[in-house]
Amino acid sequence: MQTRSLVVPTIFLQAVVVLIGIGALALMLWEPHIEGRNAHATLFEIYFKDPFLAYAYFASIPFFVALYQAFKTLGYIRQNMAFSQVAVKALRTIKLCALALVGFVAVGELYILLGNSDDRAGGVFIGILITFGSLVAATAAAVFERILQNAVDMRSENDLTV
Questions:
Q1: Which domain holds residue 131?
Q2: Range with the largest mean pLDDT of 5-14, 41-50, 114-123, 132-141
């Protein structure tokens, strides 16, 4: 049985997750065109001659996987399946994606720091912000995963004793 009080907020949050994904994708596609060294470059030069940009696109995969898992988790909540093994698995995936993103950012930071760029501060600062946000997301997902796993275990124990 679904109640309206549970359906409306989860649909709203799912819409927010979708908007975050669309915004991130739009930023990733738009930003290389306005970057200083790409101001007068062709599309081929922007997208196929910059290994760091290719790496950034590859490293964004865990972010979008985590958004998809968050969308699915909200769907489980709306279907009254919040205390289920699939919700626990989705939270575990979000945690692993956040940690993978931290790893990708760390390698990107090394690329920036060891490169011959004169302006490293901006890239390093963005990397620190992304790392901090990813660590917060990983910690929150780990806490929720443990809480849900305990609830699922208690629920299964109660089902066995009844």
A1: 4-161
A2: 132-141
* Structural domain total, the chain: 1
d(CA 126, CA 104): 13
136/159 Cα distance (integer angstroms)? 34
Reduce the secondary structure of the chain to three states and give it as a string.
CCCHHHHHHHHHHHHHHHHHHHHHHHHHHHHHHHCHHHCCCCHHHHHHCCHHHHHHHHHCHHHHHHHHHHHHHHHHHHCCCCCCHHHHHHHHHHHHHHHHHHHHHHHHHHHHHHCCCCCCHHHHHHHHHHHHHHHHHHHHHHHHHHHHHHHHHHHHHHHHHC
Rounded Cα distance, 31 and 141, in Å: 29
Model confidence at 99: pLDDT above 70: yes
Whether 95 contacts 127, CB under 8 Å: no
- What the block records as the tokens of 66 is 């985590």
Write down the pTM of the prediction: 0.87
Q: What's the CA gap between 50 and 35, in Å, rounded? A: 12
Q: What is the spatial distance between Cα 27 and Cα 30, in angstroms, rounded to a whole number?
A: 5
Q: Which tokens in the block code for residue 47?
A: 């997208």
